[in-house]
Amino acid sequence: MTTDIVTKRIIRSPKDAYGGLALMLLAAVAWWGSLDLAGSQGTQFGPGTAPRLFAGLLFATGFAVMIMGLCKDGEKIERYGIRGPLLIGASVVLFAAAVGSFGLPVTAFFTILVASAASHETRWIEAIVWAAFLSIGCTLLFVFALGLSLPLWPDF
Amino acid sequence: MDFIANLALGFSLAASPENLLLCMVGVMVGTMVGVLPGIGPVASIAILLPVTFGLPPVGALIMLAGIYYGAQYGGSTTSILVNIPGEASSVVTTLDGFQMAQQGRAGPALAIAAIGSFIAGTAGTLLVALLGEPLTNVALMFGAPEFFSLMLVGLILAIVLASGSVLKAIAMIFVGLLLSTIGADLQTGVPRLSFGLMELSEGVSFVVIAMGMFGIAEVLRNIQSPEQRGIVRGKVSNLMPTREDLRQSAGAIGRGTVIGSILGVLPGGGAVMSSFAAYTFEKRISRDPSRFGKGAIEGVAAPESANNAAAQTAFIPLLTLGIPGNAVMALFLGAMTMQGIVPGPQVMMIQPGLVWAVIVSMWIGNVMLVILNLPLIGIWVSMLRVPYRLLFPAILIFCCIGAYAVNNSSLDTILMGLFGLIGYWLIRHDFEPAPLILALVLGPLLEENLRRAVIISNGDPTIFLTRPLSAVLLVVAVLLLAVSILPSIRKRRQQVFAE
C-alpha cells in the first residue's frame, strides 16, 4: 500500500512519464547507432548530422513529456493483455519464418490459426474453416490474380 | 483552354476499360472495408496497399483513390445505421444520422449522404483541376529553402491539429523523422542506423511501418476490448428523400462543400476537421438549433458533404507540391514513391497524364459511389454483421503477405509485427501514430532540402529568413505553433475534439 501511495505522488501521470522515458531511450539508441557516421564538415551536412539532430530533438521532447508526466495528473496505464500481443507476435514470426520454405497457402493457414488464438471469442471449428478459406483466397488473390512472386509450394 | 484540354487528357486515360475496372474495384473494396468496424480510411489504404503493387502507376493510384472514397463513404453508412462511426470524419454524422435511422428514416439519411457526397466530390474535383496548374507554377519557383519551410509548416499543422497533447505530437514527428533516416545516406550512400543489418541498409519501407502501426496495432487494441456491436433495426426501405428533405438539405450541402473544400486544402486539415466545422456551422445558423441531435437532415447533409469535399481537395498540396497534408495523403505519397514516381511539382510537368487521370478518376469514383452504393446497401448491412473474431485474422494475414511482398523479405514481415507492437504501445500511451507517418514520409525530402539549402547558402542559416517566400512560410509556422500553445486556444481545441 505504501509503495502505491508513494509512486502515485511521484509519478502523477504514468502514461506520460513512462512514454517520455521510452522515447528518450529510443533517442539514445539512435544516437549511439549513428556515432560512427561522419558529422558535418564546414558547410556540408554529413550522413550523421540529420540522425543525430533528430535524435537530440527527440531526446529533449521525450524529456519534456516525462517531466509533464511527473507534474500533471493523468490517467493510469490500463493493464496490458499478454495473450493478444504474444500470439499476434508469434503468428507474424511464424509467417516470416515459414513462408520461404513451406509456401504461402500452408503458412497462411497456420498463421491464421495461431492468430485466432489471440482472441478469447474465437470458436475453433469456425476458425479452422475460415483459415482454410482465407489461405486459399489469399493465394488466389496475391499469387494468381496480382502476380506477386510469393513462394507457393512447400520446398522439399 | 488548358483546363479543358487537361481534363480531356485525363478522361482519355481514366476511361480506359482497365482503369474503369480498377476504379470500380477500388470503390467497392473500399466501401466494404470502410463498413467493417474498426477499419477507417487510413487503415484500409495501409492494409490494401499490397494489392496495388503489381499494377501500373496510373492504375495503382486510381484504385487507391477509389479505396479512399469508398472507405470514407462506408464510414458514414455505419454512422447512420448503427451509431458506430467507421472513421473519425463521420463521428458527427452519428448525431443526427442515427436519430433519423431510429425514426425509420435511414433510407433518406443514406440517400442524402450519398447525394451530398457526390455534389461535394464533384466540386472538390473541379477545384483540384482548376488549382492544379497555377499552384504547380508557383511551386516550380520554389528552391530548397522554400520547400524546407513549406514542409515545416505542414508538420507544424499536423501537430496543431492532432487531437491529443501538442508535446506528444511533436515527439511523434521526431520519431518519424528519425525512422526516416534509416537506410542509405542520400549523398554518400553510407548506410545509417542499420545496426549492422544488411537489410536495414536499404531503409525500412514505409509500407511495413504503416501496416504495422495502422493494421496490426489496431488489431491488438480491438481484440483487447470486448466487441461493441450495433444492431441494425428493421430493414432499410424507401431510400427516396422527400421534397422537404431535399429543400432542407440543399443549402447545407452547399455550405458543407465550401467549408470542406477550404479546410481540405490546408495541410493537416482534411476530412475530420471539416465535418466538425460544417456541423457546428449549420447548427449555429439554423433557425431552430434544438432540432440538431434529434434527426435533423442538415446534420447529415453538411458534414457528409464537407468531409467528401475535403477528401478531394486534400489532394491539391500532394499533387502540386508533392507534400502530403495528412496521414492518408502520406500513404498516397508513399505509394507513388513505390511506383517510382518522384513526388513534387515536376510530376505534373513530366507525367501530366498520370496526374490528370487520377483527378478525373476521382470524379468517376464519385459517380460510381452514388450508382453502386445505394442499391447495394443490403450487402453493406450484411458486412456489418461480420464478427471481429473473423476479421482480425484476415487483417493480419493481409499485413503479413503485404509486408513480405515489398521485397520478398522475411525481415520486413518481422519488422511489420514489431511496428505493430510499437504502435500498440503508442496508442496505449496516448501517442498518435498519424503525425509519425507524416513525418516518416516527409523526412527524406525535408533532410534533402535542408542540406541543399545549407550548401546554397554556404552554411548561413539565415537563408531561410532572407528569402521572402521562405520567410513568410516560417512566420506562418511560428504563428501556428504559438497559437496552438496559447492557453485559451488550447481550451477551445479540447472542446472541439471533445464534442
Structural class of the secondary structure composition of chain A? Answer: mainly alpha
What is the overall pLDDT average of chain A?
85
Distance between the termini of chain A: 60 Å
Largest β sheet strand count, sense and barrel closure of chain A: none
Q: Given the helix and strand composition of chain B, which structural class is it?
A: mainly alpha
Order of helices and strands of chain A: HHHHHH
Element string of chain B (H = helix, E = strand) = HHHHHHHHEEHHHHHHHHHHHHHHH
Mean pLDDT of chain B: 83
Please name the two chains that share the biggest interface, counting residues whose Cβ lies under 8 Å from a Cβ on the partner chain.
A-B, 74 and 64 residues
Number of continuous helical runs of chain A: 6
Helix proportion range of chain A: 55-70%
Count of DSSP strands of chain B: 2
Low-confidence stretches of chain B: none
Q: Assembly type of the shown chains?
A: heterodimer
Brief summary:
Chain B: Residues 20-438 form the DUF112 domain. Chain A is an all-alpha fold and 156 residues long.
Describe it for me?
The complex is a heterodimer of chains A (156) and B (499). By secondary structure, chain A is an all-alpha fold. Chain A has 6 helices and no strands. Chain A has helices spanning 2-10, 14-33, 49-71, 83-102, 104-116, 124-145. In chain A, α2 (14-33) runs antiparallel to α3, α4 (83-102) runs antiparallel to α5 and α5 (104-116) packs antiparallel against α6 (124-145). Chain A is flat. The model of chain A has no long low-confidence stretch (mean pLDDT 85). The longest helix of chain B is centred in the first third of the chain and has 35 residues, at 106-140. In chain B, α7 packs antiparallel against α20 and α8 (166-180) crosses α20 (433-456). A two-stranded antiparallel ribbon of chain B has the order 1-2. With 499 residues, chain B is mostly helical. The interface between A and B is large, with 74 and 64 residues.
